[in-house]
Queue: 2 jobs
Job 1
Amino acid sequence: MRITRWLIGSLITLLIIVCVLTIAFQVRPTTEGWPAYTAQPADQTNHPSLSITWLGTSTLLISDGTTTLLTDGYFSRVSKLDVVTRSLSPNVARINKNLRAANIEKLDAVMVVHSHFDHVMDAPWVAMKTGAHLLGSESTANVGRGAGMDEKDIRVVTPGKGVQYGDFEVIFLSSEHVPQAEWIDRLTGMGEDISEPLSPPAPVDAWKEGESYVLVIRHPAGNIVIQGSAGFADGQLDGYQADIAFVSSVGLSRQASGYTQDYVRNTVRATGAKAVIPIHWDDFFVPLQAGTPALPYLMENLPASFTLLAEEVKKAGAKFEVMQPKQTMTFSKQSAAKDLSASHATSE
Ligand SMILES: [Zn+2]
């Protein structure tokens, strides 16, 4: 009798915890009130331009019409339950659906910024489906091998050494991951490598960080810098110019005072980028769509992180603009430099 009562009591407590957590994970900020990127009128001067689409997390599709590159290519967007049950694997149907929706048939390279699941997990599948090379660290290469990729399509990068794809030059530079709580570090293999071919399904801790990179992508239309995690190595971009910076904003509000100043110095100021777009702030545990919401407050305080970032970006003389998942921009160095008077944060 006593055991039955204890069991019922435990079940009710568990149910209450699950309900409270479910509700808490629905409380999220929006990007309303922040300056939005809006497409500019067609350029009459025939400057070369690129099309850049943000596909959530650190996934960016970059094309000049002839050559097409993709960072990360994370489309599976596994659920929190998958993380808890320690069974993560690419959702091939979802990957293919997203590739079709973004009109991606052929890619030249899939470039992985580090080897956590929300960056590398789908990259080999995307590369194999589109005939692309997989570029990244040795850890990323091992995810490619575990997926059955042909060794000739896997390229382990050398930091600072450019790789040419059509008119694009892709340069990986050594960087750092954003600092996280110690328990998350342990859970996500921070500072550790994936030392053997990794075949999914695998638990979250199998997708270790490997090397973290900041990417510089050079093109006659303009140069792009991509920081897929809000970390940096001091001096990482010294000597590199960029016109636009796509930088992760996630985790900035949890860092020590002065961190964002150093972050912006090592991404925006170092390159002289005139336009800054925050990325990775979308809730990557829900499927990608035009209205994919921001991460819940429990995971990230977007208004606080955006405020810190936007202030430093403004001080650096650049504009801070927010793109929504699946939004496309037409980019050229001229458009990045164009001053938009309403480009600075108006938020609280
Ligand atoms: Zn990460």
Job 2
Amino acid sequence: MEYRYGAKKLSPVVFVAPMMDHTDRHCRYFFRLLAPDVGLYTEMVMAQAVIHGDRERLLDFDASEHPLAIQLGGSEPAQLARAASIATEYGYDEINLNIGCPSDRVRSGGFGACLMIQPELVARCVSAMREATELPVTVKTRTGIDDHDDYPFLKTFVSTVAAAGCETFVVHARKAILSGLSPRQNRVVPPLNYSIVRRLKQDFPELNIVVNGGISELAAVSEHLETTDGVMIGRKACADPRFLSAIQAGVLNELSGRVWSAPDRETVIRQMAEYAEQQMQRGVRLHHITRHLLGLFVGMPGARRWRRYLSEHAVLHGAGPEVLVNSLSYGDSG
Ligand SMILES: Cc1cc2nc3c(=O)[nH]c(=O)nc-3n(C[C@H](O)[C@H](O)[C@H](O)COP(=O)(O)O)c2cc1C
């Protein structure tokens, strides 16, 4: 399959959101088994860490994870450009800039959602990154921040950043409230506003607009794809990863012409056991892998028993991939 990030017609069209402490390489490997055509994102990685940190640990990934975007955090054009260039060498498919994170730590660092009020600076960051890489440079943002929450504010932000060459915007369809709410509350308290995202697409038909936030039903995925170019799924993918397989078997198979049916849980678990074996040889702890699988049986008989077995046994001293194989007798793995 040919991937066309940033092209007129987006491909992929369904993405799993960047999520700190979740979408690490093990999680992405697992998600890829469940849906061959979803676009995956890394957790946010600070540009500074890419430049000065342990690159192998921060940036390495498995070839099966393509198509894969790296999400960068930062607000220094030169630093972001250098990080984009390093990420390009590592083989990512897209470089995404985080303009949506509301956490105190991120805000005090002067990046994330608070950059929405500095569209010129974001545009400079995008320009510098584009000069450093051939890959599409995209932006993930919110609909607004604090009192800057009307449509003209969002429109000015998008047009300013688009003028610097950003062709794809992922919009979390709620504003961020920067004082008084934790990141977690900021994903629940500000109301969802999909219509403002649809309006953006109407006003900027030449841009790719990907909608994100609260999408957890198959029907909603299809409906959003009628009015926007892409859909991004966050928490639902972690809580119920088989949702990704359902999306793949439906709308994504249709679009790609693939004849793909979801592997049963036993197949997935055996593949993850093989993966765990390889990763453990490199020093990875078993539960760093298995923690991503805990939602695999959601809605099935025996789900709680299976989850409890896996979470209790994967942390034991000397636990190895056999824990995954043994877990098969605790859930209905069809
Ligand atoms: C645990 C967690 C960590 C997150 N980390 C990031 C992040 O690193 N970068 C980012 O842009 N958004 C982050 N988000 C926000 C998600 O990407 C997404 O925008 C948000 O969860 C709304 O989508 P959802 O309703 O489908 O979960 C995070 C969300 C969660 C739940």
